[in-house]
Amino acid sequence: MFSYMELQELEELMHAFVRSKGWYETDSLKPQIPRNLAASLVIEAAEVLEHFQWRAETADKDALAGELADVALYLLQLASISDIDLEEAILDKLRENQTREWPAP
Q1: Model's pTM, two decimal places?
Q2: Which of 34, 54, 85, 93 is the most exposed place for a label (fewest CB within 10 A)?
């Protein structure tokens, strides 16, 4: 259905989906505000962790992929409505980490 896309294109698709559900409306029962999106992001990340509870590998790679996509979508939306250029933030963090030292375990 979709081919390789730029981050901006994914962001546009995500916003179109959210708008189609009416979640950007002021009277929405699912207000898309930063606090709610941050909570949803953490909840979805916990669902990723469930795939590894009591095991080293996931039992269902497709289900894991779906959970990772949920995390990515909430992250993308939170960055977008917070007026953060996620691509720039990622590149900045990679540059910062390049010079960072981590203590040995």
Answers
A1: 0.89
A2: 54
